[in-house]
Write a structure and sequence with these properties.
The protein has helices at about 1-45, 50-134. It is mainly α. It has a domain at about 1-95.
Length: about 130
């Protein structure tokens, strides 16, 4: 039962990690698009045929991309916080599993010791009974 819980927590953590990687990919795409937009804006501003409206579109789009990048960074920060909580949950579940394993091993060892003790006692009783008879 504890193993199932651990496995479930690991799966949740894996899904969050996958989402984080996707979010970081989106941020990188936004940053790449921002660089491209800046490059196009600079090319347009130094060209012989200056198009003010197009230049304004690039500037406005650059502002939108900057806002998108900030939003994506906030999303990533939230996802990292959730991932940290999930990692802690996995760690706690793993510790519970380990404690139960050690307890089981201890009980198993104790059982075998009791079994050997009873067996030795039985052998002693048989040996004592033989000497009494003979």
């Amino acid at each position: 039962m504890r193993e199932k819980e651990l496995e479930q927590r690991q799966m949740e953590m894996s899904r969050i990690l996958t989402a984080l990687n996707e979010q970081q990919g989106k941020l990188q795409a936004i940053l790449n698009r921002q660089e491209e937009n800046t490059r196009l804006q600079e090319e347009l501003s130094i060209s012989e045929n200056l198009e003010i409206f197009r230049l304004e579109e690039y500037r406005t789009f650059g502002i939108k991309l900057a806002q998108d990048a900030k939003n994506q960074e906030r999303i990533i920060a939230n996802t990292k916080a959730i991932l940290a909580r999930k990692q802690q949950e996995v760690k706690e579940a793993h510790q519970k599993v380990e404690v139960l394993k050690k307890l089981k091993e201890k009980q198993e060892k104790q059982y075998y010791q009791e079994f050997l003790h009873l067996e030795m006692k039985e052998i002693d009783d048989i040996t004592s009974a033989r000497f009494k008879i003979g």
